[in-house]
Design brief:
The chain is mostly beta strands. The chain contains three helices and twelve strands.
């Protein structure tokens, strides 16, 4: 489980094709301080298992299901990615509960530069509209954000300078595909009320 508070941005150093899957080697610094083989780590909001650790990088393998449901199939060598280690019981929960289980891929359809912030409009598949509310929480590439506005299958988030500096949002332009995870509470409520998965 994660908070959606990105610890640092890493860089995809190497990609190895593995018979339908992919091995990613990610260059990092801060997250390596206590990272071990078998640990979980969120890469752009997707929980992955660490299989190798060096003094400058870690590696994980993404299987077909991950490549199909996330933006991982679009990664290229040199891409910057958001990184976060799992939540500790002693950690302050500053974001919201993020599972690292990506629901779908969204697309940035508008980027607006304001005086002290940036606005991004992101479109997502209509079937997920029921899981998002105005002023609710959403994870965009693993970053915990507040939904500023919502119009059917398009929502707006406002990005402060600190978030712009510490995440990969600065690389976003119109057309950029992003991993989305909706607040899990909405999904559990739906199952309790309807009995459907």
């Amino acid at each position: 489980m994660f908070t959606g508070l990105v610890e640092e941005t890493g860089m995809i150093r190497e990609i190895t094709e593995l018979n339908g899957g992919r091995k990613f080697t990610v260059q990092a610094a801060d997250v390596l301080s206590d990272l071990k083989v078998n640990d979980s780590i969120a890469i752009n909001g997707c929980c992955q298992t660490v299989i190798e650790v060096t003094t400058q990088s870690f590696s994980c393998i993404s299987i077909e299901e991950t490549l199909k449901k996330t933006t991982f199939g679009l990664f290229r060598k040199g891409d910057r990615v958001n990184l976060e280690r799992p939540l500790l019981p002693s950690t302050r929960l500053g974001g919201h509960f993020v599972m690292g289980h990506v629901d779908c891929v969204g697309v940035v359809v508008r980027k607006k530069v304001l005086g002290t912030s940036w606005e991004f409009d992101i479109e997502f598949p209509e079937e997920f509209e029921k899981y998002i509310i105005r002023i609710g929480s959403i994870s965009v590439d693993g970053t915990s954000l507040t939904v500023a506005d919502l119009k059917k299958n398009r929502f707006t988030v406002a990005i402060i300078p600190h978030t712009m500096d510490k995440t990969v949002f600065s690389s976003y332009d119109e057309g950029k595909k992003v991993n989305l995870e909706f607040d899990m509470l909405g999904k559990y409520m739906e199952k309790l009320v309807t009995g459907k998965d």
